[in-house]
Amino acid sequence: MRPTLGILADDFTGALMVACYLEGAGIYAPLVFDSAAIDGTSSVVVAGARTRTVAVDDALTQVEAFADAFIRAGYRAMVYKTSAGFDSTADGNIGQVADFLADRLELRPVLMAAGFPSFNITTHQGYLFYRGRLVSESIKRYDPLTPMSDPDLVRFLSLQTPHKVGLVDHSQVRKGPVAINEAILRLGDCGHVFLDVSDEADLAAVCAFAAGRGRVFVASDPVAVEYTKLLLGQQQVKPAPSHARGPAVVLAGTVGPVIGRQLDAFSCFYPVLTVDISDPRPVESLAADALEWACLHLAADRPFAVATSAGPDDVARSQTFLGPIGAARRAESILGTLARLLYQKGVRRFVVAGGETSGAVVSSLLVKSVRALPEGPLGTGFCVTEGADRTSFFLKPGKHGGDGLLLDVLRAMENGDS
Fold this sequence. Notes:
Layout: E1 5-9, H1 12-24, E2 31-32, E3 44-48, H2 56-73, E4 77-81, H3 94-105, E5 110-113, E6 121-124, E7 127-130, E8 133-134, H4 153-158, E9 165-168, H5 170-173, H6 177-187, E10 192-195, H7 200-211, E11 216-219, H8 221-232, E12 248-252, H9 257-267, E13 272-274, H10 283-299, E14 304-307, H11 312-344, E15 349-353, H12 355-364, E16 369-372, E17 382-384, E18 392-396, H13 405-415
Parallel strand pairs: 1-3, 1-4, 2-3, 4-11, 5-10, 5-11, 9-10, 12-14, 12-15, 13-14, 15-18
Antiparallel strand pairs: 2-16, 6-7, 7-8, 16-17, 17-18
């Protein structure tokens, strides 16, 4: 398999989603979390970084390490995979990453495309619609880390880069690759070009254009997947490893109504502990207390969950003391530390809720690479480390899934499903 494409995602759950979709499409797509694990033995490699909400310098340090590793291994085309709605703040980091990759590969303009039409997340005339509403009028405006208050993604992305961001809207995209190219030429000197994805036809047209043109693409999940499929076609998939055995735990660091309902459903059958992150004691002390509680249930061979928020009041209190970013980082640190302690006690199945929390847990366990399992009845999210001592994960974005998802995931892991 000749190295062709390196995909770098801005969080771990997004990276896993892309890898799962590619595996389901018959494309072997190893998923790595450490640039040292990139070896050029596959046509495409997916890398998970933690660049969405960190400081710009930290994000660019991560991107540089992965980009250099891609190039050394022979991957010359690159995708920076963002969330479907280009979740970010006015300070970054999408524009800055696009600038870095453009300079590193000496290629402008960088193509950009957001949206996920099958989930009713679309862009039209440069405006982002989240489940049929302007993102600024949707639940996304309440996101604690990346509240999307401006639906004009061209204007919003322009705050993150000194280069002009041009727009090729739906009326041009729908006409296909030739019309897209003509529209870009009319834009003149642009650092980046944003392309509408108003529907599935737009998605196909954008990917067809990108596959014949660019080596740098900033794209949401389905755009990255379709682009990869056009570049590579179907390939023989190596057999995936089976799920690990042993105790199972749910770790929930995300907040919001979706995970709240999922934990409520879970608590009807299994115990749930909520850690108060506004408790001023050190992270290690809070994790140790949670471990002592967890050991009671490990001894009884029962699944259990540990969360860092019981609802809106908890979120408001912790953010008052710590600020939104500080509260999120403290929650991630507690659950990451607890995951390491639980692993030492024999836990080998982890269900993790929240993209940033997933990054913290996987990093704490020093996992360098995993094999994603193809999309199944529960969607994407399952992956397994390869080797003799396997660990199974289900990494889910905070807003993903129905009320019974946590129970269904544990049942699937037990039955060896995906």
